[in-house]
Design a protein that fits this description.
nine-stranded mixed beta sheet, 17 helices, 34% helix, 483 residues, alpha/beta, D-Amino Acid Oxidase, Chain A, domain 2, FAD/NAD(P)-binding domain, globular
């Protein structure tokens, strides 16, 4: 392909900016980015309080691989080439104590199970769960496509899959599916497009707890674990990596460094193939309709946005609501009235930052996802002080006031939290179980590049920036070769 041929990237969120940046790296210079919002960042939202910026939709959870640090990851490459201030955070699990207050602990439903196992049995089952996840990641075919290749029998339910594994293995893998699918935990295992940091970090946390319970047997227990799990136990890779100036600061730095051509307040309304090497893109800006022909188009965005642009085509059908149902999340910026749980402090840190997973699985079951609605599942301290960002599963069936009342009631980590700001947004979507059984990923893969149109974004890669950036890093060169 001619590197001077015009290319359009639809969307200036993280998928769009990273796709355009990769094209720039490959020598393509005639690239225009169209963004519907008045600022880059797409659906990223922020709030400001006490002179600090807090990320709502784009606080970064680093993808944990199976090594000791971030070297070789796509996010490490990005922040090395385009440095902006960052800070790391530590992952903590917090659950209700018997008295109803918070306590730092692994999710409580693990405790009765662990009490039935010997130290050796627990270590062996942790290893088995780790091996399944590690193998699933390595066997996945294609960057981000097809989900993870779990050792499932085709058509098998998640419940029967769990039942034929040892109990601790099943519990760990159940937690993986519950979190990855949020309010649709009955989805099959293949919907887990990528594994977020705290999932395989979860196994390392359980292993650390097991080692602390049996200090005299530490060496023997470590010897039962694979080297990759041992490396993760001692990993220096951060679980959560935040941006003091907001996530948009990274995207803005990339755009400035590479002088990317971004047209803001330009909402794409239609994309039409017009023959060989010609795709017409129509958008609205400045109260007028504009159109231009491009040689290639890269489409980013949520399924609801994509189907609006391709409403009458088979592409619109692929991203239809029945195949890509909407899910929602509410985010709250709160000021803690009291913090009754002590934070572990890191050396040199005046006040440690933490990402707290709040009783994420034990409070509700995989058979009744409605139990999770409007309940806080995580809290995140992005700056020193009393302010926290909290996340809940949600939908639009209740008012903001009703949702906050439920969220506040379940936010037992703090006493009388004061609500400073809130937002509701579409949660990163995954294909429905029915769509997956009908070969949804195969169908998406088959249309990539057809008529010069490509798709990137979290529904294909997973929602974290490491998922998205690694997908872009691997995919764009195959679609836009340099030779």
């Amino acid at each position: 392909m001619d590197r001077l041929a015009p290319i359009c990237v639809v969307g200036a969120g993280q998928s769009g900016i990273l796709a355009a940046a990769k094209l720039h790296d490959l020598g393509y210079r005639n690239v225009e980015i169209l963004e519907a919002s008045p600022q880059l960042g797409g659906l990223c939202e922020t709030a400001e309080a006490d002179g600090e910026i807090y990320d709502f939709q784009a606080h970064l959870i680093v993808q944990q691989d199976f090594g000791a640090d971030m070297t070789g990851t796509a996010i490490h490459e990005l922040i090395t080439r385009h440095p902006v201030p960052t800070h790391t955070e530590i992952l903590h699990f917090v659950a209700r104590s018997p008295s109803g207050g918070p306590q730092q602990a692994v999710p409580p439903h693990f405790m009765p199970l662990l009490s039935t196992l010997t130290a050796e049995q627990a270590a062996d089952q942790l290893t088995a769960a780790w091996t399944i996840i590690e193998q699933a990641r390595r066997d996945r075919s294609g960057p981000g496509m097809r989900g993870l290749a779990f050792d499932r029998i085709p058509g098998e339910t998640w419940e029967s899959y769990r039942a034929r594994h040892p109990p601790l293995v099943g519990e760990i893998l159940q937690g993986l599916v519950l979190y990855a699918n949020m309010r649709r935990p009955r989805q099959p295992a293949e919907t887990v497009i990528n594994i977020n940091a705290h999932i395989n970090g979860h196994i390392a946390q359980l292993a650390k707890m097991l080692l602390s319970l049996y200090p005299a047997e530490r060496a023997a227990l470590l010897a039962r674990m694979p080297p990759s799990l041992v490396a993760q136990i001692g990993s220096r890779r951060p679980i959560s990596l935040g941006f003091p100036n907001g996530f948009r600061s990274l995207l803005a730095r990339i755009a400035d460094d590479l002088r990317l051509d971004i047209a803001l307040s330009s909402r794409v309304t239609r994309i039409e193939p017009r023959g060989s090497d010609t795709v017409r893109v129509t958008w609205c800006a400045d109260g007028r309709e504009h159109a231009r022909d491009y040689a290639r188009v890269i489409v980013t965005g949520r399924p609801s946005q994509i189907r609006d642009v391709f409403d009458t085509s088979d592409i619109g059908d692929l991203f239809a609501e029945r195949n890509c149902p909407r899910a929602w999340t509410r985010s709250y910026l709160i000021r803690a009235g009291a913090e009754p749980i002590a934070f572990p402090r890191r050396a040199g840190s005046p006040e440690p930052l933490g990402f707290w997973v709040i009783d994420p699985y034990g409070s509700y079951t995989d058979t009744d996802p409605d139990q999770a609605l409007h309940r806080i599942t995580a809290a995140n301290k992005q700056h020193p002080g009393r302010n926290w960002v909290c996340f809940s599963n949600s939908d639009t069936s209740v008012t903001d006031a009703e949702a906050w009342a439920t969220a506040k009631d379940t936010l037992f980590l703090f006493g009388e939290p004061e609500l400073l700001a809130e937002t509701i947004a579409e949660w990163p979507a995954y294909p429905s179980a029915a769509a997956l059984r009908d070969g949804w990923f195969d169908r998406i893969e088959a249309i990539q590049g057809r008529d010069g149109i490509y798709f990137v974004g979290e529904i294909l890669s997973g929602p974290t920036i490491e998922c998205i950036s690694s997908f872009v890093r691997d995919s764009i060169p195959t679609w836009f070769p340099t030779v």
